[in-house]
Amino acid sequence: MGQNHKKSGGVTIVDIAREIGVSHATVSRVLNGHEGVKPATRQRVLDAVERLGYVANLQARRLAGGRSHVIGLIVSGLTNGYTNQLLEGIEIAVSETDYDLLLYSSISRTRRRLHESSYVDRLINGLADGLLIISPFFPEAYIERLEQHNFPYVLVDHSDQRGNRPVIYATNHQGALEATEYLIQLGHRRIGFITGWQLHPSTSERLEGYKAALAAHGLVFDAALVRQGDFLYEGGYRAGLELLTLPDAPTAIFASSDDMAIGVMDAARQLNLRIPDDISIVGFDDIHQASLVYPKLTTVSQSLSQMGAAALNMLVDYIENPQSPRRQHAVATRLVIRDSCQPPAPSYPPSRQVAVHEPAKEHNM
Amino acid sequence: MGQNHKKSGGVTIVDIAREIGVSHATVSRVLNGHEGVKPATRQRVLDAVERLGYVANLQARRLAGGRSHVIGLIVSGLTNGYTNQLLEGIEIAVSETDYDLLLYSSISRTRRRLHESSYVDRLINGLADGLLIISPFFPEAYIERLEQHNFPYVLVDHSDQRGNRPVIYATNHQGALEATEYLIQLGHRRIGFITGWQLHPSTSERLEGYKAALAAHGLVFDAALVRQGDFLYEGGYRAGLELLTLPDAPTAIFASSDDMAIGVMDAARQLNLRIPDDISIVGFDDIHQASLVYPKLTTVSQSLSQMGAAALNMLVDYIENPQSPRRQHAVATRLVIRDSCQPPAPSYPPSRQVAVHEPAKEHNM
DNA sequence: CTGAAAGCGCTAACAT
DNA sequence: ATGTTAGCGCTTTCAG
């Protein structure tokens, strides 16, 4: 049964109570910082705790109706810079509280939905004090249940406003608009756009921002320049390849995530296109890598780690103060201009988007 | 206290026992697949479980001496392809068992050691049935405790052989040797090497493999061509820059991780060096991105996802069968040849490395 | 085959 | 200020 470790370790509050001759309730009081324990007693308890190396048993603590001091985190996949960046903020914020983080990732595509839900069931049902949910695949499957149980949770980067849910999100529309305008002001007229994962709220918001900028500058929206992506590197790579091999290829591409933008960069290289000379590229997120790749990526920063930290703090507030009013917290986006964009090659007649630009193949690479 | 959800949900075994008029012990038996329950009774229990939507309370289960069906996972940071790849294997393997994964990452550099240890304490002390430890920062701080408690654990990618510990590791020496030989056979004579994080066992193993290949081919080891890295992108980038701007720069660089190799690629680009024309690059790990970047990276595959899966299965075996003998499981490495290497440019006098190649700028787009 | 009863370690009334 | 007493939901003897 594998329970060989059951009896071995486990210093309990009873042990430390016996050690110094008080009741275990008193020990519990001290441990939970309750009022009304004589300072001297408190100190003796603390000493014994230290001496015996007591470690709280979260199970028992939670079961007895106390808190577990555990925050559950649900992410839809770790393999991307976006999640990592968010995690960083969350981790730092959590290290300043006395909570622990339990992370559940539903990478596996099969049974993903099932997994996410049943995991949430378990979490609600005892394990965690609250839940942080990062752009989940099928939130509806269980958010309803969280609501029923009045279980503390916060949605991260999920601006879906229905139902007054506690949520942290970025000003996606505004961010996409600014980035597109920047490209337009640089002189670009044919700007490719790669969307995010279709079901994510931010996907349409960013697309709308892109369209709005186009409209504001009297450019017609060309659906041929829009490709469906998924926020991930591969999606960007594939879409970039498609866009750049178009007969009438764009001179700039705006990808809805940095991971995708980096994919576009590699696609461009594969086609022997220079960045930014031949093709300007803008990303979204400002993940760590954005400032590391060559050339450094111009992108819309949404301060992911700040979002993560804000979400965590909001959640802790809900846990410790269930009556707190629900908030929808928007984090501002901001265009970070680096080295991946420049005006389109001047040789093109601005009025007419030139025909096929067969990328020069003369240099060997 | 945030316990508003305490009473709300929670269908318990008592509920379902009452529902069908049996004792809760019988329900427990069915739930745990114990022998000796009348099939008819069993079926009624199962039906009621389904009907009432019962979800086990892990806390109570574990507390009562059963298993929690939770496996704890300790990683030292999520922000790299290496960990991600490992995680993928683990996640897939775990989805085929009836265990859940709880992930703890000790990203924050401050108090890292403290955190790792105290988390392990909590995990041992009730939360998990077993622990998977991925190249931890300070394993010694708590492995001893795991041993004392006879708590099931498996070290992943930690070939430190001291103490007969259950471990999964790759044939690092052999892999590095093969990669270096490949480069030598291509005609390279000055081969740069970037090490991993200093304290990780694989770091010295790979370096030794590199040295062994050099020696086997009568090349002298030149310490000036070795740079200290850390397995991460930035370290590779920095070291790559240093190596490539050496007066007598190498014609090939072997980085101890793909993340670093990709950093080297960007460093090369920044110096206007073409890959592989001007500089050959080899990585280690074969992370997902290795076959995605342009040009595709030649690398030493260590089948990370397979390692992850193997580790998980090994751990489950220990949990369910504590008497299993401890194993040290080696996973074979294998050189995967892609597009990032070629023979050194013949035009160069082998002794002296030429300056920069300005990539052709002739095409307009 | 199934029920009764005793905890697991802890928190939270309720006493004192 | 501190001790006593119930449970939390579950697994596991021990009796039938």
What does this structure look like?
Two copies of one chain form a homodimer. In chain A, 41% of the residues lie in helices and 14% in strands. The first copy, chain A, has three domains: 13-55, lambda repressor-like DNA-binding domains (434 Repressor (Amino-terminal Domain)); 70-169 and 304-331, Rossmann fold, CATH 3.40.50.2300; 172-302, Rossmann fold, CATH 3.40.50. In chain A, strands 2-1-3-4-5-11 form a six-stranded parallel sheet, with helices on both faces. The longest helix of chain A has 17 residues, at 304-320. In chain A, helix 1 (13-20) crosses helix 2 (24-31), helix 6 runs parallel beside helix 7 and helix 8 packs parallel to helix 9 (201-216). With 365 residues, the first copy, chain A, is α/β, with parallel strands linked by helices. Chain A has helices at residues 13-20, 24-31, 39-52, 58-63, 81-94, 112-127, 140-148, 172-186, 201-216, 233-244, 258-270, 304-320; strands at residues 70-75, 100-105, 130-134, 153-156, 167-170, 191-194, 226-227, 252-255, 280-285, 298-301, 328-331, 334-336. The first copy, chain A, starts with 12 loop residues before the first helix and ends in a 29-residue tail after the last strand. At the A-B interface, helix 4, helix 5, strand 2, helix 6 and helix 10 of A face helix 4, helix 5, strand 2, helix 6 and helix 10 of B. The structure holds a DNA duplex (16 and 16 nucleotides).
